[in-house]
């Protein structure tokens, strides 16, 4: 113990001695040449010192080195590497422009140029190049960032077609999805088949599954950080696409050349127009979704930059019966309309300020809102009845982050964030023109969630990196306060060139919860806060792994294992139902706290990822072996049971090949063990006792009581549905026209038409003097071809 | 290049039409054998010990029955053995009650006593269960109020009562109120339950140890009743019956959006429940 402590202290002081030499700082911004788009995550490396840094989310870097002359290499996936010999004899500001690569003329990748996964202390992180998302074949040609994330190891999808993320045994409610600093509460369109993220407008997508740095908090299982593009600062450009179910348009350009720019991206579906001709005349089915991303930014100079960004999206589903059912006897006309709609809105104002060449700060003011409305309106001669059920969440937040690149071996990140959440788990408005009183009831919870963090990044002479931090999280609601320290540590040890071992520990708390209907993927997301009865969810995760970077052929291989304990996980009580379909007016009695119960979860597994991010041939193979068990006092009679999304094996193979500059082929093959479901096994009579009969010594028939027929389910989630596997293929034809580039894309989703399970149901067959139940599987996506046309100008 | 485009477009059209096939498929479901369903609640206050023995119908096998209402006929050739507290009895089948019944004198059920039941029947695996009868009587029932209303235009009467929980967590109660009424039309005596406007018929003292549990009935229409009082029963039930009754109450078959509700069972190798309780009753005269 003493020996270990001494070595540790020696490392720290040794590092300190190094610090005693004269140092100079090189700092600046890295941009994309042409558009001036700031590039996050650019690798800046000094081979002779085995030291370096990475640009932050705003493209800023700061590197302090001892006096001398060094080769400094700037590299980023999809861009040509820049290598410069620089003299560190004084502090310098140097902005770099990187050129996007043409992959045909394959640049020989040298040891320093590839993104060095093995030299990054951050483990369990996936960076998805946006260009690869555009090349992966997709359902109906709709490129989807979340569907691409589901192809990564450790990330599983829910049911067929769903865009929910299940990360290392956590449910879809345990992912913090941030778009330009704003949290997004429902990231789905069309009942979960597509995510709301329009790939055209995105600059970067990062998914962290474990070893969370202290700057992240609020969810147990993952952080998905999505950054929008800033907009081309030199010329007007855009992209447009027409697909089978939606079309999209992106426009970006300068407001003031090289100083201010904008980007607007919109997408809208026309499914309703396509289906309408097939609907009965007297019934109108309506569905549409749209989304709109917009961003404006102004560059005041080196010291200050301002960004304003927003997202607005909506889905609406309705059925209108307007042809007026006419009852001859009563001469009553009757019509009805029912439906549901949900919408997201986020907006962020961010101000980057550079204090000096070592200290960078960002201040953000954030707004986010999600709500769902279910409505029903019926009209006849005697009057109108309407019922509206509403649920939503609205946030106002302030965030301040500071980066201090103190020395070549030490960086401090610190910051504070506070959010005011307003939850409206249920609001019911009932109006009946015939009733004496109308009904208007709202349940509102106001709460504050805050986090204060400090993150220390140490570099031990290029041999090891350590990120040690702590986050103090706080939540206040309705007189109840929760305060929790969350330690975070991740460590990377370089075994040899391009080969390292990593380990991490993170404790996370989640103060807001998502109750979802566990049946079909309805958008009935209900966000609720922790309360006196419902405690915050908590998890502790340890992970360890190996990372290997192979220069030729430019492969990054990671093998990781994890073990996660979670407690106070929410689940629905047996018999509980979110959607009260029997009688909508029962919604007035709905108290969500009575419907839920708390338990614990245990998840563990191993993940392998072999990733080639660049070159004519690129792609990855991801495999996950995992177990997820749950234990609730009130479910399965307190015994452990498998989580619904517990998938023993999950395999994804993604391959993209650019035959020539004009033709790109791609394919994905996925395999996953079937979900666990609770399958009824038998029926039997359930008797009850009438103590009065026994005590009075009589034999009575209970007028209101009868022998009930109930179902024997066995253990919860003890049955496995069929395994899921699917092959998708696509081919893209690019052509460079005079002023624009066009791409035709032909795709095949589920190329061998595998009947994958969507859900199971039981059908009854009567056989003269008896009956038998039959288990049936519903699949929804057979082979689906797609065709889309895209232009870029 | 034009030819390739034409070829690909034709492929897309072909793929589109071939996708219009059947998307519902039958799955080989796990088959299972019928199991014995045993239901018995023993009490020192009962004059008769009754054990119902039926069989379950596996869902994914053909089940033959005489009529839909008679899908679960009793198992009449079972051997039912009850033993405990140094005594043992084999309980005979009673055709009139369609259950296995024996007088309490054959085996005295004691408060706090430990009992085991074994049921064997041809074609079934043997089942076994055990229970311990609660060692207290339930608390006294205290009538706290009565009143008359005419909400429906007819004379209605309600009453309120309460009881005090036995100190110490771990007590479960079953509360029931009913009017025993002879119906001359049907020539049958019925027990008409009086439902509670306030108070839960099945309750545990987890959140109210040592506290009062208060009840109030919905108004009872007196006009058509040929009775002078309401009977209230309060039973101190063991954990087995509490979990069983709670799972029956939660059971929802028709709602596809509700969570599955497994039914509690302490019958090893079978289904149902074997439990113990102590009960007391009180007559509340109409006023």
Q: Could you name the key traits of this structure?
A:
heterodimer, A: 793 residues, mainly beta, 6% helix, disordered N terminus, B: 287 residues, Immunoglobulin-like, 5-stranded antiparallel β-sheet, globular
Structural write-up:
The complex is a heterodimer of chains A (793) and B (287). Chain A is mostly beta strands. Chain A is 6% helix and 59% strand. Chain A is built from six helices and 49 strands. Chain A has a 22-stranded antiparallel β-barrel. The longest helix of chain A is centred in the N-terminal third of the chain and has 18 residues, at 2-19. The radius of gyration of chain A is 29 Å and the shape is globular. Chain B is mainly β and 287 residues long. Among the domains of chain B are: 30-132, Sandwich (Immunoglobulin-like), CATH 2.60.40; 142-237, Immunoglobulin-like (Sandwich). Chain B is built from two helices and 21 strands. Chain B has helices at residues 2-18, 239-250, and strands at residues 24-27, 36-42, 48-55, 57-58, 63-64, 79-84, 87-91, 93-94, 99-103, 114-120, 127-132, 142-149, 156-164, 172-183, 188-193, 196-198, 202-204, 212-217, 220-221, 229-237, 271-285. In chain B, the strands form three sheets. In chain B, strands 2, 3, 8, 9, 14, 15, 17, 20 and 21 form a nine-stranded mixed sheet that branches. In chain B, strands 12, 13, 16, 18 and 19 form a five-stranded antiparallel sheet that branches. The longest helix of chain B has 17 residues, at 2-18. The termini of chain B are far apart. At the A-B interface, strand 41, helix 6, strand 42, strand 43 and strand 46 of A face helix 1, strand 1, strand 2, strand 3 and strand 4 of B.
């Amino acid at each position: 113990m003493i020996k270990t402590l001494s070595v540790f202290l020696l490392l720290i002081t040794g590092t300190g001695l190094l610090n005693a030499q004269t140092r100079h700082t090189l700092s600046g911004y890295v941009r994309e040449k042409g558009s001036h788009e700031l590039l996050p995550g650019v690798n800046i490396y000094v081979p002779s010192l085995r030291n370096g840094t990475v640009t932050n989310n705003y493209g800023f870097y700061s590197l302090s080195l001892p006096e001398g002359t060094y080769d400094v290499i700037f590299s980023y996936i999809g861009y040509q590497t820049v290598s410069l010999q620089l003299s560190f004899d004084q502090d310098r500001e140097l902005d770099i422009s990187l050129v996007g690569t043409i992959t045909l003329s394959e640049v020989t990748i040298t040891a320093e140029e590839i993104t060095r996964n093995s030299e990054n202390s951050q483990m369990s992180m996936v960076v998805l190049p946006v260009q690869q998302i555009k090349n992966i074949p997709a359902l109906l040609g709709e490129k989807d960032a979340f569907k691409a994330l589901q192809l990564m190891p450790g990330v599983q999808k829910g049911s067929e077609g769903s865009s929910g993320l299940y990360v290392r045994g956590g449910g879809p409610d345990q992912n913090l999805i941030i778009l330009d600093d704003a949290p997004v509460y429902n990231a789905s369109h069309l009942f979960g088949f597509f995510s709301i993220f329009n790939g055209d407008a995105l600059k970067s997508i990062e998914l962290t599954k474990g070893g969370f740095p202290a700057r992240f908090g609020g969810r147990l299982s993952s952080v998905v950080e999505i950054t929008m593009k800033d907009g081309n600062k030199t010329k007007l450009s855009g992209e447009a696409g027409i697909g089978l179910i939606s079309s999209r348009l992106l426009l970006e350009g300068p407001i003031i050349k090289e100083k201010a720019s904008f980007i607007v991206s919109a997408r809208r579906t026309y499914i309703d127009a396509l289906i309408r001709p097939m609907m009965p005349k007297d019934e109108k089915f309506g569905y549409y979704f749209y989304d709109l991303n917009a961003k404006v930014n102004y560059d005041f100079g080196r010291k200050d930059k301002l960004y304003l960004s927003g997202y607005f999206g909506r889905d609406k589903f309705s059925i209108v019966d307007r042809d007026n059912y006419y009852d001859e006897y009563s001469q009553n006309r009757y019509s009805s309309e029912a439906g549901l709609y949900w919408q997201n809105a986020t907006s962020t104002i961010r101000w980057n300020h550079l204090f000096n060449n070592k200290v960078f700060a960002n201040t953000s003011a954030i707004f986010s809102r999600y709500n769902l409305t279910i409505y029903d309106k019926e009209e006849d001669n005697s009057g109108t009845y309407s019922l509206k059920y509403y649920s939503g969440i609205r946030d106002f937040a302030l965030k301040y982050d500071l980066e201090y690149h103190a020395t070549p071996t030490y960086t401090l990140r610190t910051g504070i964030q506070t959010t005011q959440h307003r939850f409206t788990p249920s609001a019911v408005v009932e109006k009946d023109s015939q009733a004496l009183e109308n009904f208007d009831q709202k349940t509102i919870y106001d709460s504050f969630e805050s986090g204060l963090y400090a993150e220390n990044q140490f570099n031990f002479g290029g041999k090891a990196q350590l990120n040690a931090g702590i986050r103090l999280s706080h939540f206040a609601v309705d007189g109840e306060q929760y305060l929790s320290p969350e330690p975070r540590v991740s460590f990377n040890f370089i075994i040899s060139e391009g080969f390292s071992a990593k380990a991490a520990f993170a404790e996370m708390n989640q103060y807001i919860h998502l109750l979802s209907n566990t049946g079909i993927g309805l958008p009935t997301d209900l966000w609720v806060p922790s309360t006196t009865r419902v405690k915050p969810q908590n998890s502790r995760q340890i992970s360890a792994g190996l990372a290997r970077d192979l220069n030729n052929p430019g492969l990054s291989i990671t093998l990781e294992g994890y073990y996660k304990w979670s407690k106070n996980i929410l689940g629905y009580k047996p018999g509980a139902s979110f959607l009260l379909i029997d009688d909508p007016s029962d919604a007035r009695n709905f108290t969500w706290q009575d419907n839920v119960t708390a338990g614990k979860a245990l998840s563990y597994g191993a993940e392998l990822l072999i990733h080639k991010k660049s070159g004519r041939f690129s792609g990855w193979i991801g495999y996950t072996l995992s177990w997820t068990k749950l234990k609730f006092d009130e479910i399965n009679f307190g015994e452990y049971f498998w989580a619904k999304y517990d998938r023993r094996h999950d395999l994804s193979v993604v391959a993209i090949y650019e035959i020539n500059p004009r033709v790109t082929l791609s394919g994905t093959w996925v395999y996953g063990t079937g979900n666990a479901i609770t399958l009824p096994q038998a029926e039997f009579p359930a008797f009850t006792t009438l103590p009065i009969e026994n005590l009075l010594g009589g034999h009575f028939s209970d007028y209101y009581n009868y022998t009930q027929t109930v179902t024997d389910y066995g253990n919860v989630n003890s049955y496995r549905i069929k395994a899921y596997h699917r092959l998708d293929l696509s081919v893209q034809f690019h052509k460079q026209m005079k002023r624009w580039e066009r791409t035709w894309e032909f795709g095949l989703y589920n190329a061998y038409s595998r009947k994958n399970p969507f859900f199971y149901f039981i059908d009854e067959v009567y056989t003269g003097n008896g009956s038998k139940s039959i288990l049936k599987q519903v699949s929804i996506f057979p082979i689906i071809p797609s065709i889309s046309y895209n232009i870029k100008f | 290049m034009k030819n390739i485009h034409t070829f690909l477009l034709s492929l897309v059209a072909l793929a589109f039409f071939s996708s219009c096939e059947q998307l519902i498929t039958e799955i080989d479901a796990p088959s299972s054998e019928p199991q014995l369903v045993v239901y018995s609640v023993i009490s020192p206050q009962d004059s008769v010990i009754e054990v119902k023995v039926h069989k379950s119908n596996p869902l994914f096998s053909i089940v033959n029955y005489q009529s839909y209402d008679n899908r679960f006929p009793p198992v009449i050739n079972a051997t039912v053995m009850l033993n405990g507290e140094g005594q043992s009895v084999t309980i005979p089948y009673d055709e009139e009650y369609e259950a296995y019944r024996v007088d309490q004198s054959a085996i005295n059920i004691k408060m706090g006593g430990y009992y085991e039941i074994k049921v064997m029947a041809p074609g079934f695996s043997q089942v076994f269960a055990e229970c311990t009868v609660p060692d207290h009587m339930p608390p006294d029932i205290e009538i706290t109020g009565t009143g008359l209303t005419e909400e429906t235009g007819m004379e209605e009467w309600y009453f309120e009562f309460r009881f005090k929980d036995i100190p110490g967590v771990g007590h479960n109660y079953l509360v029931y109120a009913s009017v025993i009424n002879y119906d001359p039309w049907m020539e049958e005596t019925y027990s008409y339950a009086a439902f509670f406007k306030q108070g839960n018929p099945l309750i545990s003292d987890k959140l109210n140890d040592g506290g009062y549990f208060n009840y109030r009935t919905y108004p009872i229409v007196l006009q058509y009743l040929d009775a002078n009082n309401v009977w209230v029963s309060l039973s101190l039930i063991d954990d087995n019956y509490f979990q069983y009754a709670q799972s029956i109450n939660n059971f929802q078959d028709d709602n596809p959006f509700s969570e599955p509700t497994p039914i509690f069972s302490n019958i090893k190798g079978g289904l149902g429940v074997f439990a113990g309780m102590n009960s007391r009753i009180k007559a509340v005269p109409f006023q």
